[in-house]
Write a structure and sequence with these properties.
Blueprint: H1 2-11, H2 16-28, H3 38-50, H4 56-85, H5 89-93, H6 95-118, H7 126-132, H8 137-166
Helix pairs in contact: 1-3, 2-3, 2-4, 3-8, 4-7, 4-8, 6-7, 6-8
Length: about 170
């Protein structure tokens, strides 16, 4: 998969930032993100940077916007589906676990959103659960902007670190 992407980037560098945006978007999209490994974004962005196709601020901005859009789409999907979700067979079957997750989100708000953004395994699920839990939309947006900015800055540090090792 990464060979195809790197080949496409070499032949079409004008699409590099769109690919970064879409990769960050897919990685954080509800359910889709469970099947898109975070390592692909690191490999692709390191390649883009090492080839001089885009700068670190450009890469970080594209990744930030993709992540923010996916997170907020997941949050609003959860907010919309919340009442019906609580009555679903799945929710009734796992009611105690879902209740614990919702309590964690309500209790630790900012921390839960930040941890959810930084941990690949739960990145695409936390925004949905946050919306389902009834967490305030404005508070979520503010916390998610901060979490996505921290995540994008971390991505920038990883890219430059990997590039200095292999470059």
């Amino acid at each position: 998969m990464t060979d195809t992407i790197t080949s496409a980037l070499l032949n079409n560098p004008q699409y590099a930032l769109a690919i970064v945006f879409l990769n960050a978007l897919c990685e954080a999209t509800v359910l889709v993100g469970l099947f898109v490994p975070g390592a692909v974004l690191v490999v692709v962005t390191t390649f883009i940077y090492s080839q001089g196709i885009a700068t670190i601020p450009e890469i970080m901005s594209a990744a930030f916007l993709g992540a923010l859009l996916a997170d907020n789409t997941g949050y609003h999907l959860g907010k919309f589906a919340g009442p019906r979700f609580h009555e679903s067979r799945f929710a009734l079957r796992y009611a105690s676990k879902l209740h614990k997750a919702e309590n964690l989100i309500q209790r630790y708000g900012w921390g839960a959103i930040l941890i959810g953004r930084l941990l690949t395994a739960i990145r695409s699920i936390v925004p949905l659960l946050t919306g389902i839990s009834g967490f305030s939309a404005w508070r979520y947006l503010i916390f998610d902007i901060i979490a996505c900015a921290i995540w994008a800055a971390g991505l920038g540090l990883i890219i430059t670190g990997v590039d200095s090792v292999i470059g």
